[in-house]
Each structure stands twice: as C-alpha cells, then as structure tokens.
Design goal:
The protein is an all-alpha fold. 75% of the residues lie in helices and 0% in strands. Helix 5 packs across helix 6 and helix 8 crosses helix 10. The two termini are 36 Å apart.
Length: 317
C-alpha cells in the first residue's frame, strides 16, 4: 500500500496534489544538475520501490488469517524500526529525529497509523487490487480538503480530478449492491491518508525524509503497542520470516524511494506511485487467486486518471 502509507513518496504526492510554487520546482537541483542517466536510475528505483510495497500488503493479507490487523500493524513498525534506526544513525548520527515541529509530526503519524490499520483490516476482507484502488482516493480527497484547510484555489484541473475520483469510487462501491465492509475500511484508510497528506503539507514538507521516516516508525510503534498487547498472539516460529518480511520490504521500499528522489525530481517520480496498483493486482492474482472484476478495473482506472491529472506538470506561463 502506498500507504502505506511512505514518507518520501507521500511528500512527493503532497507537492504535486497541493499547491507548490513551480518556480521553486524549476529551480530545484534535481532538475538543473541531474543528468538524464541519474533521472533514469531514479525512475527505475522508484518503479522497483512501488513493486516492493505490495509485497508488504501481500504478507499482511497472508498473516491476517491468524493474527489481528492491529498486531500486524505494530509488528511492521517494530521491524522497520530495527532496520531504519541503524541506517539513520549511520547517516545522521544522533540526530535521527526531526528537530522541529515534533507535535505536528506526531499528528501526521497518528493519521498514518489509523490509515495503515484500517488498510490492513480491509485487505483481510477484500482483494488487494480493490483495496489499493479504494485507498488511492486519498490524494484526491486531499484536494478537496486543501481548499478550506490550506486556502488553496480550486482549479478546473482539481475539479476534474475530483469528479473522476468520485465516479471511480462509485464504480467500485456499486451503490445498490451489497457493500463489503472491507471496502468501507479501505475508503476510510484513504480518507485518513488524505488527512495525513494535509498534515504533511502543513508541517513536514521541508523535513529530512530519513528523519521523518524514523520518527514515523518509532512513534507508530509506540502508538500501536497498547492495541498490539490487547490483540496479542504469539507468532509461530514458522511465521517469523513473514513478520520480518513486513518490516524488511517496507524499509527497503522507503530507502529505494529516498535514493530515487535524490536522483530525480518529484514531478517525474510522483506519477509512478500508480505502479503499485499493478503490483497489488499481480500479487492478488498470483498468490491469492484474486481476479479483479470489471468494476474494480474501471474504478481503478478512473481514480488513477484523476490522480495523474493532478500530477501532470503545469506548463510555465
């Protein structure tokens, strides 16, 4: 899950969904000093990262047969901490956490934890491709929230994106049919992700990505500990490798994203977040024998189109 949540990738989505000064983007080092070969490497790394992230979803779905989604969410954070903290210490020394706006960082982490937990609950009930498609309404919802909260202008492009996302959500939900509770959980995860995007836009767009990631992992683990204890199930030895995989794949995806954004600018990489839809559909089909229905495919295409409209670079005047 993009969700899954993903500090670096989410910052890119924030920059593209919400208003960003294009003069600043055109002057960014990634656009002025990075050669085409570096950009190509960044694109490749981003694609690999977006294909790795659905592996986390697949492992969570597999483990949800025997463990609570609350416990799985906590385990993901704990294992990720064990991987990310040493990396951050090696590159940042003792300064592994953001030095400023920690309350704001905590707030956005709360939204992220809620989003991830709802998403893990969703994928235990519905196909991966359906859950990811519903989850991706988050950036589009953030457009609506950015108008009253961030005082952003409501442009024609944003309206079109909103309409496409809304229609896509309706196609997936199929009003009049029996609505799966898992679908509502997935859309709830998307809504929480939208709040996370808004909080990120307000508080953390200039933060160091690695420090932000460490903060999210540590605080997320602490926030989920009471729920994990309440729903505790001692993992079987045979399942430990899958729990480790939750954190390893998550951390690797984040690290690859960090490197990718060092090599290429956000406007180039942000549209690639939708590669995650392909990865989720592939894992759902190959591992869980899930075949996305026409409604899911059409709805996902509409939601992706709405997101890509937001991510499209505006032409300079």
């Amino acid at each position: 899950m993009s969700f899954v949540p993903d500090a670096v990738k989410d910052l890119a989505v924030v920059r593209m969904v919400c208003h960003v000064d294009r003069r600043e983007e055109r002057a960014s080092p990634a656009m002025t000093s990075t050669g085409s070969s570096s950009i190509a490497r960044g694109v490749v790394l981003m694609i690999v990262a977006m294909l790795i992230i659905p592996l986390v979803d697949g492992l969570a779905k597999f483990l949800s047969a025997g463990y609570s989604p609350l416990f799985l969410s906590w385990a993901r954070y704990v294992v990720a901490c064990a991987i990310v903290l040493p990396v951050a210490a090696a590159y940042r020394g003792r300064r592994v956490f953001p030095a400023e706006r920690r309350v704001a960082h905590a707030l956005r982490t709360v939204f992220l934890v809620i989003s991830m937990t709802l998403y893990f609950m969703a994928i235990a009930r519905i196909p991966l491709a359906t859950a990811v498609s519903a989850y991706f309404v988050g950036p589009i919802i953030a457009v609506v929230l950015s108008v009253p909260v961030l005082k952003e202008s409501l442009t024609a492009r944003k309206v079109l994106s909103l309409v496409l996302g809304f229609v896509g959500a309706l196609v997936i939900l199929r009003p009049g049919a029996t609505i799966e509770p898992g679908l509502l959980l997935a859309f709830g995860a998307g809504l929480s992700f939208a709040l996370y995007i808004i909080a990120t836009r307000q508080a953390a767009q200039d933060s160091d990505p690695l420090q932000t990631l460490v903060f999210q992992c540590v605080v997320g683990a602490l926030l989920m500990t009471p729920q994990a204890v309440a729903s505790w199930t001692t993992p079987a030895w045979s399942d430990l490798v899958f729990f480790v995989g939750l954190g390893v794949f998550s951390a690797v995806g984040h690290i690859l994203s960090i490197v990718a954004f060092r090599l290429a600018d956000a406007s180039t990489l942000a549209p690639l977040v939708y590669v995650e839809l392909i990865g989720a559909a592939a894992i759902g089909y190959l591992v869980f024998h899930e075949v996305p229905g026409p409604g899911t495919l059409i709805g996902a295409a509409l939601i992706a189109a709405g997101g890509l409209i937001l991510l499209q670079r505006q032409r300079p005047a």
